[in-house]
Structure formats: C-alpha cells, structure tokens
Amino acid sequence: AQLVESGGGLVQAGGSLNLSCATSISTFSNFHMSWYRQALGNERELVASISPGGRTNYGDSVQGRFTISRDNAKKTLYLQMDFLKPEDTAVYYCKANQMGRPVYWGQGTQVTVSS
C-alpha cells in the first residue's frame, strides 16, 4: 500500500496548515490511522490518531490546536493544524495499521514554523 503525505511547508507562528495523507488502501475504512512527527534529534512521537469508528486521540502538546479527520470514500487522512508554534517544526508522517496486517508509513512531509 502507498501513503503519500502533502500539505507541509513554511508558516509563521500562529498560522495554520492542513496536511493530507492519500492512500491506496482498498480497505481504508478498517484501518486505524495516525499522524506522527519527528523533529531533528528527537524520537518519532504520536500527534493524533483516529479509529475506524472515528474516535480521536491527541498528544498533549497539540490538544485543542490540531484536528484529525478521515474521508473513507477518498481513502484520505487529514490533519488540520492551527495556532502553530515553532516547536511544531518536524517531519510529519501518516501511519496505517490494522490488527494482523502490516503497518504502513508514508514518506513524510516537512512542516517548519518560524517565530
């Protein structure tokens, strides 16, 4: 399966970006989807996740600023990022997983927030 992230870029602090993760997963609606990020020198961390049923979960640092969503018809995952901070600067990855199936990762998209 292919996962392709897009929507990253350079934005000033306080601004917004909307990331997309287009997939080729035929059974996308059955997959648990997540956004992770990895800043230079840091470990990859969970940003947000959404279950097949739409239940969402957020990391403490992005709670209230980021919104994860999915469009099962388009097989696409989204991350709306508002009130961005310089510490949000990282490469953002989407991940797809389902019990008993391989875990799929995208190639990542760079988000840079200037102060």
Number of helices: 0
Order of helices and strands: EEEEEEEEEEE
Question: How does the helix and strand content classify structurally?
Answer: mainly beta
Number of strands: 11
Radius of gyration: 13 Å
Question: What portion of the residues fall into strands of 2 or more residues?
Answer: over 45%
Low-confidence stretches: none
Instruction: State the share of residues found in helices, binned by percent.
Output: under 10%
The residue-averaged pLDDT reads 97
User: Could you say which overall geometry the principal axes of the C-alpha atoms support?
Assistant: globular
Distance between the termini: 37 Å
Note the main sheet.
Answer: 7 strands, mixed
Explained architecture:
- By secondary structure, this protein is mostly beta strands.
- Helix content is 0%, strand content 51%.
- It has strands at 3-6, 9-12, 17-23, 32-38, 45-50, 56-58, 66-71, 76-81, 90-97, 104-105, 109-114.
- The strands form two sheets. Strands 2, 4, 5, 6, 9, 10 and 11 form a seven-stranded mixed sheet that branches.
- A hairpin with a 5-residue loop joins strand 5 (45-50) and strand 6 (56-58).
- The radius of gyration is 13 Å and the shape is globular.
- The N and C termini lie far apart (37 Å).
- The model has no long low-confidence stretch (mean pLDDT 97).
